[in-house]
Amino acid sequence: MRTQTEIGSLLDWVEEMRVRVREIVREWDDQEGNLIMMLHAVQNEFGYISRGVAGVLAKETGINMARIYEVITFYHYFRLTPPGSHSVQVCMGTACYLKGAQKLYDELAQQLQLMEAAGGRQGDVQLETVRCIGCCGMAPAVVVDSETHGRLCPGDILQFLKRKQEARHGS
Ligand code: FES
After folding, report:
1. Whole-number Å distance between alpha carbons of 94 and 14
2. Is 130 near ligand 1, meaning CB less than 6 Å away?
3. What class is the 86-168 domain?
4. In this structure, which of 11, 27, 30, 88 has its CB flanked by the most CB atoms within 10 Å?
5. Which mutation among 91, 148, 149 tests ligand 1's pocket best, with the greatest number of atoms within 8 A of CB?
6. pLDDT tens track for 34-54
7. Which of 21-25, 31-35, 119-123 is least confident?
8. What's the order of all strands across the beta sheet hosting 141-144?
9. Could you report the per-residue pLDDT of 55-93, keeping only the tens digit for each?
10. Is there an atom of ligand 1 within 6 Å of 104 CB?
11. 105, 136, 152: which to mutate for ligand 1, most atoms within 8 A of CB?
């Protein structure tokens, strides 16, 4: 059960979130393609687009939730869940797909699941697919924590994440 203080902080957070979403709506309201721009701004602000935030956006813009979810789910860029502390985006554009991106994604997903089963924290790695990121010459291209790499195997990616984790914890 939540304490009064926790409930108070949660309510403060919800109010701050509402105010921020209202500001974003005001900023983009009269511009073309504004829903996408608002969604980008919302995701930049909160890290992902939660149902609560989408609800406030729907209320403030008068756009119904179905339309908002249609857009969020159409573009792979948008997140419906909180991002992990690391993100791995595997490009599934045509060039990358032809160079084995699907196999890379499947193997990586499997290895992350095995790590989780062994007590690791797979939830710390947000694995997702994206469309062409403009680095087709590096196919299959992968973006690991905002750094673009080409032609990595799943083992390279896991090693890279491990090194970053170690650097973060100073070991
Ligand atoms: S298709 Fe993957 S970077 Fe272009």
Report:
1. 41
2. no
3. alpha beta
4. 88
5. 91
6. 999 999 999 989 888 888 899
7. 119-123
8. 125-130, 86-91, 141-144, 147-150
9. 999 999 999 999 999 998 888 788 887 776 788 999 999
10. no
11. 136
Which ligand 1 atom minimizes the distance to the CA of 94? 1
Nearest CA to ligand 1 atom 1: 93
pLDDT classification of 26: cutoffs 50, 70, 90: very high
From-to residues of CATH 3.40.30.10 in the chain: 86-168
Evaluate: CB of 91 within 6 angstroms of ligand 1.
yes
pTM above threshold 0.70: no
What is the CA(20)–ligand 1 centre distance, in A? 34
Ligand 1 midpoint to CA 141 (Å): 6
* b/e 146-156 (16+ beta carbons within 10 angstroms → b): eeebeebebee
pLDDT at 12: 78
Residue 92 near ligand 1, beta carbon < 6 Å: no
Contacts of residue 145, Cβ cutoff 8 Å, sequence gap at least 6: 86, 87, 164
Query: Lowest-confidence range among 47-61, 88-102, 119-133, 148-162?
Result: 119-133
